[in-house]
Each structure stands twice: as C-alpha cells, then as structure tokens.
Amino acid sequence: MLFEQTVYIQIEKDLLKLLHVQSGRTTTVQGAFSNPRLAIAHFKVAEQALKKGIDEVYPKSFFRVSPVVIMHQTVNCDDGLCEIEDRILREAALSCGARQVYIWQGQPLTMGQLENKVYKN
Question: Are 87 and 56 in contact (CB under 8 A)?
Fold first, then answer.
C-alpha cells in the first residue's frame, strides 16, 4: 500500500518500546501491566499505554491512516507464545486502532528488516 504506516512495538516487563518505521520516531512508555507470568496481565493498563505510545510516535492528523502494528513480546516467551498471549497482543493492538497486526517472535527486528517487511513471511 502506498501510504502504509507501520509501528513496531517491543513489549518488556512493564515497558513498551515503540518505533514508527516511516519517520524513525521512537518512544518508551512504562506502566504496571505485567506480572511474573504474563507480559500483559492487566489489559486496560496496557491498552492505555499502547494508545499513548502510538499517539507519540504517530500523531493524529486529518489524513492519518490506521497503522500496521508489529507486536514483539520479548519477555516470558522462551518456548513461544500460547494462544492466549497471542490473542492478548492482537486485541490490544486492534483496540488501539491498528488496521492489521503481526506477531513477531525471535530476535528484535532491524530497521532494514522492518522496511523489507520480513514480519509478513
């Protein structure tokens, strides 16, 4: 898509790191949304933190299109994500206005990988 906007979100314990791929803007947002077992244990708190972070890296404007969001959980995922964790990540991103959500597992994505859309494979 010509005007596709992409936001890459790394989820750590009580911390979100956001990157707007097209502009390079970054931010971090802290919140008490994790517990020892789940990266996102308190959905509403995480949802508010996500909305705040997305608005910081991709400000609202009259012509703003809904972004494609890549969610990358970096904690509590040694053996991969279970269905519940996958759904939590998808629902959180969709509730914040994402047009499409990809879940990435593995090493953090580089800017080159994000630009080449390796997360779609």
Answer: no
At 106, phi and psi to the nearest 5? 130, -155
Residues composing the chain = 121
- Averaged pLDDT of the chain: 93
Please report the pLDDT score of residue 12 as a whole number. Answer: 96
- Sign of the dihedral defined by the CA atoms of residues 65, 6, 97, 25, in that order: negative
What single string gives the DSSP state of each residue in 35-86?
-SS-SS-SHHHHHHHHHHHHHHHS---TTPPPPEEEEEE-SS-TT---HHHH
The one-letter amino acid code at 108 reads P
Buried b (16+ CB within 10 A) or exposed e, 65-78: eebbbbbbbbebee
Worst-scoring range by mean pLDDT, 19-23, 61-65, 101-105?
61-65
